[in-house]
What we know:
The relative contact order is 0.18. This protein has helices at 3-8, 18-30, 41-51, 70-80, 95-98, 113-125; strands at residues 10-14, 35-38, 55-61, 86-90, 105-108. The model is unreliable at 1-6 (pLDDT under 50). The protein has 131 residues and is of the alpha/beta class. The longest helix is centred in the first third of the chain and has 13 residues, at 18-30. Helix 3 (41-51) packs parallel to helix 4. It is globular, with a radius of gyration of 13 Å. Strands 2-1-3-4-5 form a 5-stranded parallel sheet, sandwiched between helices. It has one domain: Response regulator (Rossmann fold).
Amino acid sequence: MNPVSMAGGLILVVEDDPLILEFLCEILQEEGFTVQPQTSADAASLYLDHHANEVGLLLTDITMPGSLNGADLANLFGDRYPDKPIMIMSGFETPESSGVRHSVSFIKKPWALGQLLDCVESAFKSQRPLG
């Protein structure tokens, strides 16, 4: 069991491709993380309205259907919870090119398993209390 995952809380995983979403959640759960899958940034935003205090890390794709994309979600999350880490994955864009205003961990798709887990771990380690 990874000590980082125990202290980190839940990972909100946002990915519109159901196969990738399921695969991501399985990998993270095998590593001892608790995950909450959401298939759109809109759904994830609604989830955050009620459960934000449980979320330790936002892991989102950028390109998604709906009124919000992953960059919008990252900005919302970062504005509201500046002490919580954000991890973004994309095969097409970067956080900069998509307009993310916050400091985030970024992984390019397609990623290797080890890369993904290293990125999640370093995202949790980057978490700093304000002040």
